[in-house]
Write a structure and sequence with these properties.
alpha/beta, five-stranded mixed β-sheet, 3 helices, 5 strands, 25% helix, elongated
């Protein structure tokens, strides 16, 4: 799953002319992710796409990126205390059940700052039913096993 997600992100950004400079695998370790995010902070990238691997343990490292002006896109979850529009630009869910999407947009002018957060949940219900009309049947006839040879042998030894 993670490799497919990474392939899709890198491919799509490449199609848009954006270079991916680092791909860091933290092995789902919060301390490794904090070290990696702090290392990226020192390099000042334009944006970081991150899958937070823990909640509170990685929240401050993500907040430091945002405070430095680095655009942040989160995958699947937002650590405690991080606010849409302030700390991250968007949260993308990988079609997890009831995960949905959180989309944010922010407009800033000298007079006004406007932030909007939209939560979109993908929910569906599947309903299946069957019915019978009169004596109609939609069941395929059962196949019989074996070979049925209806040929009549004529002439005895002539064939």
């Amino acid at each position: 799953w993670a490799r497919q997600q990474l392939s899709g992100i890198v491919g799509t950004l490449g199609d848009c002319g954006t270079a991916v400079t680092h791909v860091i695998d933290c092995g789902f370790s919060p301390s490794a992710q904090v070290r990696a995010l702090d290392g990226l902070l020192a390099q000042r990238p334009d944006a970081v796409i991150s899958l937070p691997v823990a909640n509170q343990e990685v929240a401050l490292a993500h907040a430091r990126l945002a405070e430095a002006g680095i655009k942040l896109v989160l995958l699947d979850n937002a650590p405690t205390g991080l606010l849409p529009g302030r700390h991250y630009g968007t949260l993308v869910s990988s079609d997890n059940f009831l995960g949905g999407m959180k989309m944010t947009s922010t407009s800033v002018t000298p007079v006004l700052k406007q932030s909007m957060v939209n939560n979109i949940y993908n929910q569906n219900i599947k309903l299946t039913f069957s019915y019978k009309i009169g004596k109609m049947s939609f069941v395929a006839p059962k196949k019989t096993k074996g070979v049925k040879n209806d040929d009549v042998k004529e002439g005895g030894d002539n064939n």
